[in-house]
Automatic annotation (TrEMBL):
It comes from Colletotrichum fioriniae PJ7. The keyword Iron does not apply. Residues 1-79 form the HPt domain. Keywords: Coiled coil, Phosphoprotein. Residues 55-82 form a coiled coil. The modification Phosphohistidine is found at residue 13. This is Hpt domain-containing protein.
Length: 87
């Protein structure tokens, strides 16, 4: 529930690098969006002065990111043979 745009941008940057290292392209792209919105930029890097809009975009992108992360996690667990059997 943190609403600090600068902090959200920093976290987006950190996660973008980590996901890029693992080859998680969709996750990386969503993290880059969060980083941009946290820096009060639009997706294309142009300035955005409406902080509320930036926060709304971060919330939406974060929902997408969670799904992308879950998909990537399942694939990685399957690849490495560490997925747990479901009941």
């Amino acid at each position: 529930e943190e609403k600090d745009l600068e902090k959200l941008s920093s976290l987006g940057h950190f996660l973008k690098g980590s996901s890029a290292t693992l080859g998680l392209v969709k996750v990386r792209d969503s993290c880059e969006k969060i980083q941009r919105y946290g820096k009060k930029e639009n997706e294309d890097g142009t300035p955005e002065t409406d902080e509320k809009l930036c926060l709304e975009r971060i919330e939406k992108t974060l929902k997408d990111l969670k799904t992308e992360y879950e998909d990537a996690e399942k694939l990685l667990k399957k690849f490495f043979g560490t997925e747990e059997e479901e009941d």
